[in-house]
Amino acid sequence: MTSSGVSLGTVGAGTAAIDAAVPALVAEKFASRLFDQDPTLWGTAAEPESANRLSWVTLARSSRPLVGEVSALREKFAEAGLNRVVLCGMGGSSLAPEVICATAGVPLVVLDSSQPDMVRDALAEDLEHTVVVVSSKSGSTVETDSQRRAYEKAFEDAGIDPRERIVIVTDPGSPLDKSSREGGFTVVNADPNVGGRYSALTAFGLVPSGLAGADIEALLDEAESVTDLLAADDEANPGLRLGAVLGGTQPLRDKILLADAGTQIKGFGDWAEQLIAESTGKDGKGLLPVVVGDSEPDELAADENLVLLTAEDDERAPEGEAVSTVSGSLGAQMLLWEVATAVAGRLIGINPFDQPDVESAKSAARDLLDKGMDAGAAPAFTDGAVEVRAEGPDFLGDASTLDDALRALVDQLGPQGYLAVMAYLDRLRDASLADVRAPLERTLERPVTFGWGPRFLHSTGQYHKGGPAIGVYLQITTEAKEDLAVPGRDFTFGQFCAAQAGGDAAVLADHDRPVLRLHLREHDAGLAQVTSALEKLAGGDAR
Predict the structure, then answer these.
(1) CA 57 – CA 195 distance, rounded (Å)
(2) What is the CA radius of gyration of the chain?
(3) Does the entry feature the keyword Isomerase, yes or no (predicted)?
């Protein structure tokens, strides 16, 4: 069906889910209550969290004052010859601006990593013409705080006043807000009643995007064009219908394959991935989004649900047992998918606004930093340039080679399972490693996700630890070519990145998930060795 601003087509399981779930949602006035910010929609236990997390439904209108504020800042920086915008942020704070700017065709450097080589490269490039946006609700996110410290020092070392180059986006009254204003920095406040992954149309999404040159007023116009439609208690409401497709199939098809089928929106799957996974993966339940690029599967497993992201003028009808098509402008689709995720959370029976296991991984990383990185277990064995160890259930057996270890890991895959590849590497320089995802998926005949660490910790990381215990996990870490100190801290970026990986593996192991950890003792040789082994695995030698 086509509605103003968005189009949704369904067949088979998706249509059946709409028929089964949407009439009841309309009868209880779910949509209008959502847009009235009713915190009772997800049950009593969720009320304290949802009571201060629902302002995202009003952002198409309430964010309008940011348009002029950001435009004035952009003009000021342009007059000073500053034309390179770097964003320091994690999760929703980085993924929304990334897709907004990529779709608009304007450059934005997204620094959402603690990998020292990646941080150093960002610091070294064209500092003279750089403006830095530091995005954090409270300022307590260690990655973002470390990046801010690194940029402040880099500017000072270059004889540049950091206060003239750094813009802070944070919640009003947060520790970062107070310290930044006292320090003389430019601060733009975001709506405090919006969680990170729903913040695309707040200052977190709009400030870096607008400074980079994206038309943020048009983005808000697109969202506003569908606001009344999505708030309507009507069976034609596309938010209710897409929510039913995602969370209402019977039995639940909980692997949501997101395929680029010609959409004009660049990288939308990555943004939707963090929205869905972090919102729904908890209490042993959840939806696992799998970003498959343009590699649409020939057949779907019984637990898979394929969503084709199509162009706005694409009128194709979906075909298959569990296939849907979704199209529309970027602003309209952002609001559509946020509504649909809130609906899916209701149907699954979880609170879509908390992220308990993201916090557990952060705590485990801090513990490792406090104890020292030598506190972890020794490798089970070393093969060439790669150290191999396992955490969680004992699955390595008598494995003595990298190939043996990979086979032992995928042998843990059950009929409903998935493989998660988690690479704590430089996602720009090492981007080709992600090419192994699709061949692995075809060979294993199970979904394969690929996440760059630490950014995935704020998206699929929640699902991996809080969702169903059906995954197997391959973690890849590396020795940095050169480590980098975090100014004012007693740890380096390399130590922090290692602690994040170790903490994540420890929490997965505590949840009885099998984790294979591969550490590249020498980056280039180790990466080549791991890539070759994964290509061999994807060639069908493993099973």
Answers:
(1) 12
(2) 23
(3) yes
Mean model confidence pLDDT for the chain: 94
> 82 phi and psi, to 5 degrees?
-100, 115
Cα 198 off chain centre by:
11
Distance CA 167, CA 82 (A): 13
Q: How far apart are CA 460 and CA 257, in angstroms?
A: 13
pLDDT given at position 4: 53
The answer to whether the predicted template modeling score (pTM) of the entire model surpasses 0.85 is yes
What are the tens digits of pLDDT across the range 255-287?
Answer: 999 999 999 999 999 999 999 999 999 999 999
CA-based end-to-end distance of the chain: 42
For strand 386-391 and strand 448-452, is the pairing parallel, antiparallel, or unpaired? unpaired
* Eight-class DSSP state of 484: -
For strands 288-293 and 255-261, give the pairing. Answer: parallel
Give me the sheet containing 6-10, strands edge to edge. Answer: 2-3, 6-10, 323-328, 304-310, 255-261, 288-293
* C-alpha span between 441 and 154 (Å, rounded): 42
Q: What is the DSSP string of 242-257?
A: HHHHHH--SS---EEE
Res 402 pLDDT > 80: yes
- Please enumerate in sequence order all residues whose Cβ is within 8 A of that of 461, keeping only pairs 6 or more positions apart, or say none: 277, 278, 357, 358, 361, 451, 504
Handedness of CA 366, 371, 373, 379 (dihedral sign): negative
| Angle formed at CA 211 by CA 330 and CA 74, multiple of 5 degrees | 135
What is the chain's length?
543
Closest of 89, 188, 131 to residue 97, by C-alpha: 89
Cβ atoms of 90 and 455 within 8 Å: the answer is yes
Q: What is the token pair recorded at 406?
A: 């990979």
Does the structure show a pLDDT above 80 at 420? yes
- Per-residue pLDDT band at 129 (split at 50, 70, 90): very high
Q: What pLDDT band is residue 459 in, cutting at 50, 70 and 90?
A: confident
Which pLDDT tens digit goes with each residue over 149-194? Answer: 999 999 999 999 999 999 999 999 999 999 999 999 999 999 999 9
Residue 303, both tokens: 């637990």
